[in-house]
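Retro notes (design track)

What went well: tokenization of the new backbones is finally stable.
What didn't: we kept losing track of which sequence belonged to which structure.
Fix going forward: every design gets posted as structure first, then sequence, in one message. First example under the new rule, 735 residues:
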């Protein structure tokens, strides 16, 4: 019986381990793809920043270095490339190549000639794999032998008129970390490009960028049509578990390989120890029984009597019987450890089965039986729980704390569920958790009990996460086939917190389609544009409040309609400013992608607050721009009147009524030159006139135009004219 029970445990453990290993692979794949997606988004954000426009006309290294302002613009791009490296783990380097230029701006070598940088000939081959305007990931080996996964993003006309290519190089070793193999000595992995059948990442670095055909069984997995799965395979006398998962964002295949002999070694050792101990116990028991029955019958009866009356099996004696009791106790501890391991694998299998149910995947008989055990009742509802202002929660917590919060939340609410209602939860990413609610005929007549259970879940989430949550609850269904549709209903309801606010529970109700119509406050739009022209910011705020009230008073308004209203208002405002020849890039330089920011807002309060700041920035810029025209005229007039004098710029700025730093900024934007260069140029032009038309000596002319000594005059004259004052005077008179 001991051998048979141990064999059954081994068989069940093997299947559970395979399911859990597949779930782990999918989790690692999601982690890797999220990291790659974040790098791609960061690169796209830089590409849309118009930072490249400042250097697009300088095709040669010599042109770029001819002026400090040009170099400063290139250095700004250099700093952004370094920021990408700092904010993204594992990024080796990043660079920008301006089309037809002879130089590169890179994070590792700064601004350098193309011939001094590694070859970029591979870019043309990589771009042949590009589809659409998005970038492309391309595995390659760099000149220094480092294997990287390069993200290429050609600049397009939708974001900038500059032509060039952004490249971000991610170390292959970082992908290995995402595959989470550093602490897993019992497995290996492959990341394969299914188009080129090339190995992108593997712990054996000699296999990188080689054809997968050299590993026959791995190449067989490329032919499988299933998105994911697992299979057992014998190789060189070793039983291996292969799990695979195909990427949803690229044509990549993720494969993990486990040695089942190593994974199951501890379990088999436990089985062997149990059998061995059982044999030892039987033998010792038989021998002792014979001895005790023959020579110690009376002490044996007393011993049996003591064992029956004993409630605590722990003994301090060191005789043989005490030793056997200790052995039995240790057997129980080993069995408890094994059961705990099996339970953990069963929990992973439950989560995986629920994910398949939510996606509408085909379920095998084992998963169907597992779901029937979790959800024994007839009716289902789907609830989607989303943390409000999730970005703030992420900024204030670490991944370990967030994982602990999820575990604590699930354990607390499950202990509070009323009889007859079954709820299971899986994490759905981005601060969302999907709850499958299962109940019977009796509970559907007591709908208030279900509502109360969901309210308790909301209150528990508020307490555990320290953050309000919004819950969308779908309509009721009897069929598991329609559960993916109910999940979409619940996710759609989450969007309604835009109107209803945070911390709500929103239940599905069927709206009358004929009553749904798009609204747009065209009159408010016209008034806001007029108020911008007249500088009436307070009246703009009144109309923004009017738009908000119109949205709230609508009998039905969709989430998409609300975003359309604010996106349209922002769009016509930017168009209006462009028609007025205003520099919109300067106004919104620090706002990033305005439309993405609007889409990230959860409530009308957040949207209205953002629009208030949006129009406040515009109003400030218009007011500041009108003042700057007068300041510029005053600066030029002062310099033209006093350039032959010793000018203290700080005193000059005070006389005009602005700060010295602001005066320098205005003058640089107006003339493209510095104050000191402008004064010296004016002085030299005046000196040239005096040298030709006057009989004054060179020393007298130097003093006349504002130089205190002849050496400074000679130095600046040679700088601007290329000759000394005396040579210039002689050449003009002789000529």
């Amino acid at each position: 019986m001991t051998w048979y029970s141990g064999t059954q445990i081994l068989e069940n453990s093997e299947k559970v381990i395979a399911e859990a290993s597949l779930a782990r692979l999918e989790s690692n794949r999601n982690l890797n793809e999220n990291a790659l997606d974040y790098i791609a988004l960061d690169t796209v954000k830089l590409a849309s920043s118009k930072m490249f426009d400042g250097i697009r006309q300088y095709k040669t290294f010599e042109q770029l270095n001819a002026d400090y302002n040009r170099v400063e613009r290139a250095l700004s791009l250099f700093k952004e490339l370094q920021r990408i490296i700092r904010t993204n783990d594992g990024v080796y380097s990043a660079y920008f190549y301006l089309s037809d230029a002879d130089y590169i701006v890179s994070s590792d070598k700064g601004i350098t000639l193309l011939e001094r940088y590694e070859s970029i000939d591979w870019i043309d081959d990589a771009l042949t794999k590009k589809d659409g305007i998005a970038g492309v990931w391309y595995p390659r080996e760099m000149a220094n032998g480092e294997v990287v996964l390069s993200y290429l993003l050609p600049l397009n006309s939708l974001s900038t008129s500059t032509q060039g290519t952004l490249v971000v190089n991610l170390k292959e070793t970082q992908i290995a970390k995402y595959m989470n193999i550093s602490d897993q000595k019992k497995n290996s992995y492959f990341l394969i490009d299914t188009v080129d059948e090339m190995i992108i990442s593997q712990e054996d670095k000699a296999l990188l960028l080689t054809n997968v055909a050299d590993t026959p069984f791995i190449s067989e997995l490329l032919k499988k049509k299933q998105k994911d799965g697992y299979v057992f395979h014998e190789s060189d006398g070793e039983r291996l578990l292969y799990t695979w998962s195909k990427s949803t964002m690229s044509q990549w295949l993720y494969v993990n390989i486990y040695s089942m002999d190593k994974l199951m070694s501890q379990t088999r050792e436990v089985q062997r120890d149990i059998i061995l101990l059982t044999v030892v116990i039987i033998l010792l028991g038989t021998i002792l029984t014979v001895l005790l029955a023959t020579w110690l019958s009376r002490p044996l009866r007393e011993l049996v009597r003591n064992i029956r009356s004993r409630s605590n099996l722990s003994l301090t004696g060191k005789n043989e019987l005490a030793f056997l009791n200790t052995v039995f106790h240790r057997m129980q501890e080993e069995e408890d450890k094994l059961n705990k391991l099996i339970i953990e694998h069963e929990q992973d299998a439950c989560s995986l089965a629920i994910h398949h149910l939510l996606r509408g995947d085909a379920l095998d008989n084992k998963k169907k039986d597992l779901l029937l055990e979790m959800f024994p009742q007839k009716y289902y509802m789907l609830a989607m729980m989303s943390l409000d202002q999730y970005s703030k929660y992420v900024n204030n917590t670490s991944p370990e704390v967030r994982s602990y919060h999820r575990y604590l939340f699930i354990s607390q609410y499950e202990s509070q569920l009323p009889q007859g209602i079954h709820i299971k939860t899986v994490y759905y990413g981005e601060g969302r958790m999907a709850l499958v609610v299962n109940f019977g005929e009796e509970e559907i007549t007591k709908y208030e009990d279900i509502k109360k259970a969901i309210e308790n879940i909301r209150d528990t989430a508020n307490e555990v996460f320290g953050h309000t949550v919004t819950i969308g609850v779908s309509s009721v269904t009897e069929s598991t086939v329609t559960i993916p549709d109910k999940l979409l209903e619940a996710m759609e309801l989450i969007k309604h917190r835009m109107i209803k606010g945070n911390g709500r529970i929103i239940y599905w109700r069927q709206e009358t389609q004929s009553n749904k119509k798009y609204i747009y406050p065209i009159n408010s739009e016209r008034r806001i544009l007029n108020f911008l022209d007249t500088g009436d910011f307070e009246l703009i705020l009144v109309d923004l409040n009017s738009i908000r009230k119109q949205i709230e008073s609508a009998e039905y308004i969709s989430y998409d309609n609300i975003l359309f209203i604010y996106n349209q208002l922002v769009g016509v405002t930017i168009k209006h400013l462009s028609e007025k020849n205003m520099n919109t890039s300067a106004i919104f330089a620090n706002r990033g992608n305005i439309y993405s920011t609007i889409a990230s807002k959860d409530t009308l309060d957040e949207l209205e607050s953002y629009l208030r700041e949006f129009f406040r920035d515009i109003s400030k810029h218009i007011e500041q721009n009108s003042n700057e025209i007068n300041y510029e005229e005053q600066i030029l007039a002062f310099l033209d009147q006093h350039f032959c004098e010793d000018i203290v710029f700080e005193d000059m700025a005070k006389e005009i009524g602005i700060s010295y730093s602001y005066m320098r900024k205005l003058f640089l934007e107006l003339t493209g030159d510095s104050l000191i260069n402008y004064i010296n140029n004016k002085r030299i032009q005046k000196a040239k006139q005096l040298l030709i038309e006057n009989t004054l000596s060179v020393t007298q002319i130097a003093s006349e135009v504002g130089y205190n000594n002849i050496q400074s005059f000679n130095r600046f004259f040679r700088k601007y004219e290329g000759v000394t004052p005396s040579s210039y005077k002689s050449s003009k008179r002789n000529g």
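Added context from the reviewer: The mean pLDDT is 81.
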